[in-house]
């Protein structure tokens, strides 16, 4: 594979690591989720534009829409947790209550 | 002919126009009003006699008011059989009532205003009777409603009077809806509101406007369903009760139905409806009159019962007989009210018949007129009531109608005799039951003259009117003797029964009332139920449907809250894990890394 793709793929892996290993704030995993979405978007756009796959040109935009939806969902969950506990520390999610 | 009639009507307007001048402040104003009405009566007798001798009807169309697209509205008066005969009768009765109220309202500081209101009422009634198109009739209709409101609530300091006036307006309004519906139907289907045009064109299905007119008559003439306002209207002064609620206003509804008799002749459904409605009204109000204790309320119920009888007459397709009954009924009912007014005033405003008695000796003139009025009411042969009431019962007996309605009418006739006997028994006979320090005095000329005039009218008017009117529908001439004597027999049975019961129960202890008594005394529970229950139910229903149903259930609870509740319940029941999120993520990552390293063998 060419260098560009490996670069972007590496960015994706970095964000994945960040999503899975975080310390205390729930917000940081959400940020890394955004990073994953961003890197996926860039990779998809570069691949389509370089190989002239014209018919698939709408795919990145659709990906962006769905990324926005899931970001909103994640933020609403964060707000719910923050409403009950005051902060978003992950230690708080130990009792399965809302 | 026509100028005389217009002069008679114009004379009536004069005292009202002069009300802003010095004449109004004069203490002789009532006298002026009374003499005005007597002049108008005499003048209006002349066209009446011309009409009787020649049978010629007239329509006066003066002034073209406006034309709305294809509808031409003008000021037109219709002097036909009904209005020409009704106007002198109404003027005569009003003359006597004005004279009576000069005695009755003598100590009232606003007596001038009272006379002005009575005169305005009379004018609107004249407009109603002589109207040739529905618009003018509606003006008169609303006018009598408004004057009734102002006059019932004359003593506005009394809360009951205000409630009664409001009740009258509300019930009349419900009837007005029917009237407006009829007007709208005529407007869209025959583009005119003139009676001539309505009667000439042939309509296919007249159910809707006739239903509207029946509803209007139910409201204005206090038929069953819209009747509670009439007994409550007795809160007004006695002259008001005598004029409005015995002779003139309550016959406005019947008059409307009589005016439309060409349309009602063809429609069998309408006739059956009016017949049943009138029969129910007659019986129900007669039952209620049996146990009332207020003398004015008993007379009010008897008015209501006679109105039901008039509606029954229209139902058997005899509009002319109903009109005759209107005219004769005016005489003796107004006289009954005036007698009760004289009794009330001389007993120092006592209206309860349980507290009157033994007035036979102190008030001989009032006693005489009360007895004659009651006999005329029940249809004693050869007094006034006989000429109309007996004819009605005979015609009903020999016509092809609803037998149940007929039976009910006969029962109501006997009840008429029963409650009349009750009035006479409690008020006139026996030992006095009122306070002893009353000065009972009927020496006033105004009182005596007015009652005397109506007394002579009650005795002779039936004969005079029946033999002088132009021929109309022919009454049934031959019938079996038992049918002809039915009315008389039923009335005598009512008299004797009531007399026996009253005499037998005179000195017994008053026991706890039976349920039948309570039904009769509380007007059949009708006002109690109907005034509270429907309004409360409609208000609560609208509140429930608008705020509870729409807002709280559909918008709030069905989708959002139900989904969240469901998810919460389900998640708490299904999942049994603890919240160690970081460990879960770490395990995910280690698994991913291990799998990528170990399964790298394709390279």
Automatic annotation (TrEMBL), chain A:
Question: Its membrane topology, per UniProt?
Answer: Multi-pass membrane protein
Q: Which organism is it from?
A: Felis catus (Cat)
The reaction(s) annotated as catalysed by this protein in its Swiss-Prot or TrEMBL entry are: a ubiquinone + NADH + 5 H(+)(in) = a ubiquinol + NAD(+) + 4 H(+)(out)
The answer, when asked if Oxidoreductase is one of the entry's keywords, is no
Q: How does it assemble?
A: Core subunit of respiratory chain NADH dehydrogenase (Complex I) which is composed of 45 different subunits.
- Give TM regions: 6-22, 29-49, 61-81
* Functional description taken from the UniProt entry: Core subunit of the mitochondrial membrane respiratory chain NADH dehydrogenase (Complex I) which catalyzes electron transfer from NADH through the respiratory chain, using ubiquinone as an electron acceptor. Part of the enzyme membrane arm which is embedded in the lipid bilayer and involved in proton translocation.
Give the top-rank taxon of the lineage listed in the UniProt record for this protein. Answer: Eukaryota
Instruction: Kindly indicate whether the keyword NAD belongs to this entry.
Output: yes
Q: What class of enzyme is it?
A: translocase
Listed Gene3D superfamilies: 1.10.287.3510
GO MF entries: NADH dehydrogenase (ubiquinone) activity; oxidoreductase activity, acting on NAD(P)H
Protein keywords: Electron transport, Membrane, Mitochondrion, Mitochondrion inner membrane, NAD, Respiratory chain, Translocase, Transmembrane, Transmembrane helix, Transport, Ubiquinone
Its annotated compartments are:
Mitochondrion inner membrane
Name a single GO cellular component.
mitochondrial inner membrane
Q: What is its main location?
A: mitochondrion
Q: What is its EC number?
A: 7.1.1.2
Record family assignment: Belongs to the complex I subunit 4L family.
The signal peptide, as residue positions, is none
Q: Which GO terms describe its biological process?
A: ATP synthesis coupled electron transport
Protein name listed in UniProt: NADH-ubiquinone oxidoreductase chain 4L
TrEMBL record, chain B:
Output the InterPro entries linked to this UniProt entry.
NADH_DH_su5_C (IPR010934), NADHpl_OxRdtase_5_subgr (IPR018393), ND/Mrp_TM (IPR001750), NU5C-like (IPR003945), Proton_antipo_N (IPR001516)
MF terms (GO), sorted A to Z: NADH dehydrogenase (ubiquinone) activity; NADH dehydrogenase activity
Record field: catalytic activity: a ubiquinone + NADH + 5 H(+)(in) = a ubiquinol + NAD(+) + 4 H(+)(out)
Presence of the UniProt keyword Transport in the record:
yes
- List the record's Gene Ontology CC terms alphabetically: mitochondrial inner membrane
Task: Report the coiled-coil segments.
Answer: none
Q: Which Pfam families match?
A: NADH5_C, Proton_antipo_M, Proton_antipo_N
**Predominant subcellular localization, coarse grouping:** mitochondrion
- Where the record annotates domain NADH-Ubiquinone oxidoreductase (complex I) chain 5 N-terminal, the positions are 65-115
**Which membrane topology describes this protein?**
Multi-pass membrane protein
Membrane-spanning intervals of the chain: 6-24, 36-55, 81-102, 114-131, 137-157, 169-188, 208-230, 242-264, 270-291, 298-316, 322-344, 365-383, 403-429, 450-469, 481-503, 580-599
Give UniProt keywords alphabetically: Electron transport, Membrane, Mitochondrion, Mitochondrion inner membrane, NAD, Respiratory chain, Translocase, Transmembrane, Transmembrane helix, Transport, Ubiquinone
- The NADH dehydrogenase subunit 5 C-terminal domain is annotated at 419-598
Family listed? Belongs to the complex I subunit 5 family.
Q: What does this protein do?
A: Core subunit of the mitochondrial membrane respiratory chain NADH dehydrogenase (Complex I) which catalyzes electron transfer from NADH through the respiratory chain, using ubiquinone as an electron acceptor. Essential for the catalytic activity and assembly of complex I.
Name recorded for this polypeptide: NADH-ubiquinone oxidoreductase chain 5
